[in-house]
């Protein structure tokens, strides 16, 4: 059996109906074969290769997925290749003040470059002194929030008290690492008042690597801008009013430089005695 | 290709969808109903993979009926939407449905509400929304013309303007649409819209 007939057999096994130009060189065909042998990067229906574990486990259906390539192009416009973390767009920041903390997020819900809503909630309450902001893929943020509330309510029933922020951060980290090889595409920002009303903030990546900080933590598509803005505007031991001003300015100036986040801001300021929620008006673009 | 449009007005919600069943370049039928009446006061407009769409919407409808049989009261719109979202989210990492949903309903205590549920189970309550290629033309039109206290005639007029815009500007625009409404009197079909093709389409007039 010659090498040429092997290549022809592989060429016929291609899933995509394609007119092959005459005069293919052996190098081209070899490259094609090697492309088939490379680890298959499954394409999901809108060009995002994120549902790796789900699609990998069903090799039989790869053929179905690929053969729908033509209608898929008719169905959805070809979008620029975006990371799954940038699918919905988000910005979350938390800052520590004097016996208080503030957590803020943007309000845009988008689908790649299209804006769906401008009142999307990204910061969720766990208990009166503990809040979590979830940036990244919106569906995973919602699923993760539901699981965390469930776990916290169970904890409250068993322990008859609220969870400490440090404990909660470990819980989130463990929950995320459980899905190490098929993760939730979220980066949480956790902020709470611990014992003696000591503010606690931390962030983690999508597989639960905790990062504690004493001053501020950021996450989302605008995170790089947020780092810069927070670093320059932050001062230690700010009073609640000043903290609110600082975090609002940092958030708004950062999301103005990011097309995927913005469309308003939502700031939550928590002190030992009260919680202030405010919605910021910003550039709607 | 498949367009679903939804608008919430004063104590009612309107969901419109195109009625073409298309596979690649072939139009199988032009009267496919994509807005399913889930129960007496709920509408589910769905777009996406045809098999998944029919299967998933019927699944939700039957589960809704089961709940009503078991508990003697119908499920609220918010609960239905959350249930739908939960089913999509559970299936997402196993066997994903590729169905985008606009769920609209009327509850006596809350009034009319509409929920946007993406195919990856992104869940959000909205007043106006659209799926598909039509959304590129409709969303900005709705941003301009929508008001929260619209009457039925105004809302249907807005939907008509969206349909006109789709038929004017989308390259393979669906020819026929179905418009359904849900209010305190229930969920029912309101109108059908067809492209007659006699006169050239004009752009919708929008007073600034």
UniProtKB/TrEMBL annotation, chain A:
Signal peptide: none annotated. It is found in: Cytoplasm; Nucleus. Non-catalytic component of the proteasome, a multicatalytic proteinase complex which is characterized by its ability to cleave peptides with Arg, Phe, Tyr, Leu, and Glu adjacent to the leaving group at neutral or slightly basic pH. The proteasome has an ATP-dependent proteolytic activity. Keywords: Cytoplasm, Nucleus, Proteasome. One of its GO terms (biological process) is proteasome-mediated ubiquitin-dependent protein catabolic process. This is Proteasome subunit beta. GO terms for cellular component: cytoplasm; nucleus; proteasome core complex, beta-subunit complex. Component of the proteasome complex. Pfam families: Proteasome. Its main location: cytoplasm. The keyword Cytoplasm applies.
TrEMBL record, chain B:
Its main location: cytoplasm. Pfam families: Proteasome. InterPro entries: Proteasome_alpha, Proteasome_beta2, Proteasome_bsu_CS, Proteasome_sua/b, Proteasome_suB-type. The keyword Protein transport does not apply. The keyword Cytoplasm applies. Component of the proteasome complex. This is Proteasome subunit beta.
